[in-house]
């Protein structure tokens, strides 16, 4: 039976994460993005956008955009393929690298769409659990146990979604060492979507692409730069054969990206220091305020401090919230116009929830967290 002969309705399961693209509540704490850039912030009278030809671009992506991304990652422009957001990159890699029955090792909880594309191509997926108790730190020994000659891909995210916890470079090196021993032909995919969204003057982790030729990285302008509406992502690989397969795969799925999106993406990267600098200061305030909220509510919740990104996770204390209390918590939040991201969206337990602290202004974040506190106090198990 061919790879795509299964029930097409089962390829991509429903997930309530899609609600983030619908009606927005008064206090949105479920999102993992910062404020969206406005077009006027990027353009001036001499930007040349008015004269842009709305033609096809190349399957590889605008050469100016690829050069800018290559400089930021220490690679050649020929190592970069521009995609329609990072999810397109993840889909292409799954579709091109995996056949039905091939094995993948990944971690859970995770961004659900990243797992869905692996399931959609019929791969056998081994999920290494990341626990709240361990601070969502990856256990390399446990990962190593699932590697074999059938492993074609190891797919990781750093910083992780939903926790914002990063994988240390030394841990990635240990993963690669285990792969060289157990599955030397496999690729290590690292989704670096949140890598540059650090807090204030915190150090930025180096790009994982420098770790070796079997490493592939993906990212996008959606999270760190505030431009999810541009739908621009990228894959970086130093394997010429894989790069050509990605270009061909892109041509056969979307032909090319939008010329307007790519031109505006160049503008974003030209102004990246201003854009990222302002957002890092805002994220520093957001994570500090969220940490203070967690300390003040320690009798109700536990919290894991993230390394980067506008996201973190808290857990309703089992000593204070039974299963009925967890249900009351979410129901009461909805009635207060507050939304957090239920841990079940990502493959975690319901008592864990993602708090996004980058989208709201600081006064709005304060108001949202105050309402969150009131709901905790009101719904805790008697």
Report what the structure shows.
This protein is an alpha/beta fold. The protein has 2 domains: 8-35 and 274-379, Aspartate Aminotransferase, domain 1 (Alpha-Beta Complex), CATH 3.90.1150.10; 49-271, 3-Layer(aba) Sandwich (Aspartate Aminotransferase, domain 2), CATH 3.40.640.10. The protein has 11 helices and 13 strands. The chain has helices at residues 39-42, 63-73, 85-97, 112-120, 140-145, 169-182, 240-253, 259-270, 272-296, 323-335, 362-379, and strands at residues 27-28, 80-83, 103-108, 124-129, 151-157, 187-191, 215-220, 233-237, 301-304, 311-316, 338-339, 341-342, 352-356. The strands form 3 sheets. The chain has a 7-stranded mixed sheet with strand order 2-8-7-6-5-3-4, sandwiched between helices. Strands 9-10-13-12 form a 4-stranded antiparallel sheet, covered by helices on one side. Helix 10 crosses helix 11 (362-379). Residues 1-5 have low confidence and may be disordered.
